[in-house]
Amino acid sequence: MIHHDAERRLWVLSGPSCSYVVRLDDADRPRVLHWGRRLTAEQAASLLPPEPPYRPVEDSAEGTCDLAAAGGLSYGDAGLRVRFADGTRDLELVHTGHHRTDRELVLAYADRHYPLAVECHYRLYDDSDVIERHLVVRNAGEPVTVVRADSATWVLPRLNDYRLSSVRGQWGAETRLHRAGLPYGETVLTSRRGVTSHQANPWAMVDDGTAGEEHAAVYSCALAWSGSWRLTAQRLPAERVTLSAGAGHDPVTFELGTGEELVTPVCAGLYAEGGFGAAGRAWHDYQLRHVLPHPGETRPVLYNSWEATGFEVSLEGQTRLAELAARMGVELFVMDDGWFGARTHDAAGLGDWRPNPRRFPDGLAPLIDRVHELGMRFGLWVEPEMVNPDSDLYRAHPDWVVHRPHRTRTEHRNQLVLDLSRPQVADWLYRTLDELLAKNDIDFLKWDMNRPFTEAGPDERLWTGHVHALYDVLDRLRAGHPQVRVESCSSGGGRVDLGILRRTDQVWTSDNTDALDRLEIQHGFSQLYPARVMGAWVTDSPNPYTGREVPLDFRFHVAMAGVLGVGGTLTDWSEAELARAAELVAAYKRIRPIVQHGRQYRLLPPDGELSAVQYLARDGAQVAFLAFRRARRFGHAEPGIPLRDLDPGARYRDAATGRIHHGAVLLSHGLFPDLAPGDYASAMVHLIRE
């Protein structure tokens, strides 16, 4: 719902439980008066600030505008900065009108002198407090350099203190939660890699330093973009705080020619009461309702062949793995790297997306047919944005890669990046994959992207053009092959964001499959992203990445917290292990609807001796509970772990044991998981309301 008070030049944007209030001041600057609990129009009008009793030295508008344009007395972070052809850098924007519906608002501005127009777009949903925003910048005059165009600047109210939450990481250690007091000045989170990155993720949350999982207010924003990005958290000495996020990174600029426009990606913002848990659930609901292409689908249990075979791929070997996976109850078999071109090692073949004739003399059809006979869907690994110099594609088109004249073509993992911003390259990519899908009965693509940009130069058209072309190729392929589902992978979690999630069905969270490490990775991932998209595998012990030995049940229980997959060397598993794995897969299928479509509660974080997570069905009728013990110290018995949001008057039956639990007792005294003695113990409990 959007209300406009024409006399006061004020707009009230309201979701189910919150409101965002913006007002134009005498200088046409959009000042944010409120972002918090839902207000009526009358209540919002009462927020108009009185005249200050004195004239401050600083501009009182600093840190209060949701369109923060560079110019005048503005010296802080400016989300919109340009350089006109004559060298002028200041913007002087005047309001030229607005367009409003029940769910959308456009505030229009133009520069006082130069023929440059700016539109601020806002979008609401009836079932979510998330607000989507983006900018449109149009140039009708001489070419203009857009130095910075953030999608949105979010203005926070004054709080007693400010704490910033984000995730940090690297390859194999993505999405690790980091919380710290917000310092004065500008705190910049960014990726300069051409991809979302393992090192940071384009979202941030701010609270007053007292929020927990289930109490206090949390303000957050997330950028829907899969390339380079920058998010700035600014804390001014006057105790004003803003979050501003957009595509691109310093010092890359965008040249806007005559008659051209720049449309920024969406930056979504959320105010939530009820702590980080409520904020996370609100973000999860928003993605399930308004981001994911097939939110109602239940993701299948998959098997991936990479860790079992590496590049030693053969029809016989893949068939044997598929037969063992089918015995386990797997529903989707994915053949990973090594099936195409001269790809018998990692230095050749990328770009030649044809089955290796020696390994698959009759093409992929015999393997696909056998997988389907076994009752599973068939998936295939591709890395279509990359090329090996040792490939037919590169020998034919060495100019198709991202490069600069007179600079070394830096190889990483023996790869170079194809420049999808060039139309002929993007068209080749679409035609190649379209043909692959048309000629083979493929149900699933694991779409990988294993290296960042290098030698990309300063032109934003490449940095943004590659991402837009990627989106276009994915959109066209999905439209032409609606049965195909896609997993986003980038050496693990290097491309996870709201932009790629509009075009894919799940993401590969991390190449690190160590179950203990995954507890921390999955905890940080869940702050913004739902379990419905979080790919999690069970692999061998000792773990091939860390060397840690962890029991099979622990590995399965950790992976049950998301989209369960298996990636171990099944031919080396004992009959007892295969039989137990089949039991655990069946157990996951029973709780899968709750995990993938229910609401998540992080009961205990993974940094303690004991951690736990709960999932509650939307109708409240079923509960899935997962508990994990790192190590048992001093022989102490575990405490009960209180559950959340149950009916205190209801009775809940343990589906495995038949034991009856009372809702009020579970809420206050908690559930006592039956954990085996020793280290790395775990339990899964499925409760059904009587």
Classify the oligomer.
single chain
Shape: globular
Strand fraction equals: 25-35%
Q: Taking all residues together, what is the mean pLDDT?
A: 96
* Terminal-residue CA separation: 39 Å
Structural class: alpha+beta
> Remind me, CATH topology of the largest domain?
Beta-galactosidase, Chain A, domain 5
Q: What does the radius of gyration come to? A: 26 Å
Instruction: Say how many strands there are.
Output: 37
Helical content band = 10-25%
Q: Given this structure, which CATH class of the largest domain is correct?
A: Mainly Beta
The CATH superfamily of the largest domain is known as alpha-galactosidase from lactobacil brevis
What CATH architecture of the largest domain do you see? Answer: Distorted Sandwich
Number of helices: 13
Contiguous uncertain segments of 5+ residues: none
* Count of domain modules: 3
Describe it for me?
The chain is of the alpha+beta class and 690 residues long. It has three domains: 2-290, alpha-galactosidase from lactobacil brevis (Beta-galactosidase, Chain A, domain 5), CATH 2.70.98; 302-511, Aldolase class I (TIM Barrel); 610-689, Sandwich (Immunoglobulin-like), CATH 2.60.40.1180. It contains 13 helices and 37 strands. Strand 2 and strand 3 form a beta hairpin. Helix 7 (423-439) runs parallel beside helix 8 (460-480). It comes from Sphaerisporangium rhizosphaerae. Residues 611-687 form the Glycosyl hydrolase family 36 C-terminal domain.
